[in-house]
Write a structure and sequence with these properties.
- The protein is mainly beta.
- It has a domain of 91 residues: Rieske Iron-sulfur Protein (3-layer Sandwich), CATH 2.102.10.
- The chain contains no helices and 13 strands.
Length: 136
């Protein structure tokens, strides 16, 4: 799987894929970097596949601002929950809400994605939103 930074399209350019959908196994997560626009600041992302949907979040714990992975691209996932390796904050894989730990009630920052022709793309609006897109 290619984890090189991807550049989101300008309005005239075709969308650039983040990864292939089949690279996201149900119940797993991957990390990758993406550029929301040419020359933009990279987004450090977590992509999860849960219940057939693809979710994307910034790879930043709201508690301490640290990455959630315990090693580059390796995440703790249990029963549909993503666990921060640093302080154990536990986040719902669907909406990113912290359900246990030091930042209970806060949310991971969702990033809009869409699936088209078996590829996962940043959604046209590259800004973080309330809920990420689903596969379709």
């Amino acid at each position: 799987m290619d984890t090189e930074p991807a550049v989101s399209p300008s309005p005239a350019a075709p969308p650039v894929a983040l990864c292939r959908l089949d690279a996201l196994v149900e119940g797993t997560a991957i990390a990758l970097d993406a550029l929301p626009q040419a020359g933009g600041e990279p987004l450090d992302l977590i992509l999860l596949r849960h219940a057939g949907d693809v979710r994307a979040f910034r790879n930043v714990c709201p508690h301490a601002g640290r990455r959630l992975d315990y090693a580059p691209g390796k995440f703790l996932l249990q029963r549909g929950q993503l666990i921060c390796a640093v302080h154990g904050a536990t986040f719902d894989a669907v909406d990113g809400r912290c359900v246990a730990g030091p930042c209970r009630g806060e949310h991971l920052q969702a990033v809009a994605v869409r699936v088209d022709s078996g590829l996962v793309h940043l959604a046209p609006e590259p800004h973080p939103i309330g809920l990420s897109g689903t596969s379709g």
